[in-house]
Amino acid sequence: MSQDAESPEKAQPSPEPSDDLVTSEHELETASGKVAYVAEAGRVVLREEITEDGVFRGLRPKAEIFVTSYVAKDQPPSRPVTFAFNGGPGSSSVWLHMGLLGPRRVLMGDAGALAPPPYGLADNPESLLASSDLVFIDPVSTGFSRVAAGDKAEDFHGYLRDIESVGEVIRLWTSRHGRWLSPKYLIGESYGTTRASALADHLFTRYGFALNGVMLISSVLDFTTGSDEQENNDVAFVLGLPTFACLAHYHGRLPGRSLEEVRAEAESFALGDYARALLLGSRLSEEERAQVVARTAALTGLEPDYVERSELRIESHRFFRQLLRNEHKVIGRLDGRFTGHESEAVGERATADPSYSAIHGPYSAAFNHYVRAELGYENDLPYEILTSRVRPWSYKEFENRHVNVADRLAAAMRQNPHMRVHVAAGYYDGATPYFAAEHTFNHLRIPAELRSQIEFAYFEAGHMMYVHEQSRLKQSAELAAFVQGG
Question: Deepest of 79, 137, 167, 348, by most Cβ within 10 A of its Cβ?
Fold first, then answer.
């Protein structure tokens, strides 16, 4: 037997990756009429330039990014196009795609009235497709997106490389579809707002890619505003308090008052006596402290003794466990309208977010069916809805300081004063409090005349406010108006 026959079979090199896009044609009945459109789904290969001694030597594949796009037929190039993604980090774009923007949406019910498996799908007459073409992007390691052979996934799992790769997808799609002269928008949710804000700056400075608008849903641009687990970060406690008051009101802890009354009082107290008490620390008199404890308890639905033992600082994860503890329930972080049960009632934190548990199954089933049965895309890889495989996520660009991209959004607005910003916030969102978003934009370093370019929208719902039907209808109309207004 020859030496070659005795040795293990040599591994064959991986084939050069190529785009595996599939197209299909559909129609959607909307309030403004029937929209005929072409859907395109599949993985787009991103390549980087190879140079040697400053000489271009070719292109090397670095990642395969899953993209789903919807383009209306027989429309002029002046029709807007909107690029959409969620956050995480580690989230696919399924939530915005199947919950709010796309031509088909998941049927799952709502808090207190959830549908059972296997759930369902329906046309979405309120789809933003009536006003804009849509492109949904799944960053590396989410959805069906993966790195190319020979690359390391962790190289893409970080703030800067993520922005660069998503920005490259946007540039590539725009060039291949001849849309450089179309009005262009970004829409991101949660960490997707962090990405979108930095992208607005990156796209302009790197490619001269000027946006007409950015839509930020459940925004977090300055991580200082939500880091209430970090010692001595009092600003996060101040900005989170109004959300706790809204949640206490929703769950019947503040009877006889409207949400608007509770919210207004909580905001005033948070910026006034509460903030002053936290800043004074041990200099606060016993009488003043007792007054702040009592008022904090009254607004948050917690016991005064609990507020006292918490040193006036109500950490959010503890609040989600504590508010309904006497009922042996926890409330959701993403959406505090949802409740769940734990195996015992004495823990400090919930072991699972009941609001995420409620949406995970419906969205997973809906997309896995939809992408294969209706879009015709086949892939045996698991579609990573929301994966932890991107962790640890690198923020090396922000070493020894909080992540803050508000400066990049401000820079984009100063460079492109025509760019408008839409900010959507849910009163029951415990992950990205609405008052924190207001704080960030109130401190945005832009000229006074550009502040009219920013608009806020509020919803009596949570992080994915479109899970709530009335909010979904309202939000769909507001996003359409924003895009049409460009």
Answer: 137
Instruction: Give residue 164's pLDDT.
Output: 97
218 in the Ramachandran plot: left (φ > 0), alpha (ψ -120 to 50) or beta?
A: left
Q: What is the CATH number of domain 22-223+359-484?
A: 3.40.50.1820
Cα 291 to Cα 246, 262, 263, 279, 385, distances in angstroms: 21, 18, 19, 16, 46
Asked whether the beta carbons of 230 and 413 are under 8 A apart, the reply is no
User: What residues contact 96, with CB distance under 8 A and at least 6 apart?
Assistant: 84, 85, 86, 102, 136, 187, 189, 192, 217
Cβ atoms 159, 119 nearer than 8 A:
no
| pLDDT tens, residue by residue, 5-31 | 444 555 566 678 888 999 999 999 998
| pTM score | 0.94
Indicate if the pLDDT at residue 77 is higher than 90.
no
The pair of three-digit structure tokens given for residue 18, joined into one six-digit string: 């190529």
Q: How far is Cα 350 from Cα 290, in angstroms, rounded to an integer?
A: 29
Strand bridging mode 184-189 / 213-217: parallel
- Is residue 128 a contact partner of residue 472, using CB atoms and an 8 Å limit? no
Query: Stretch 378-405: mean pLDDT, rounded?
Result: 94
- Residue 38 CB burial class (10 angstroms; 0-12, 13-18, ≥19): middle
Taking the domains of the chain in order of start, what are their residue ranges? 22-223+359-484, 227-355
Tell me if residue 303 falls in helix, strand or coil.
Answer: coil
- Among the ranges given (1-15, 106-120, 214-228), the one the predictor scored with the smallest mean pLDDT: 1-15
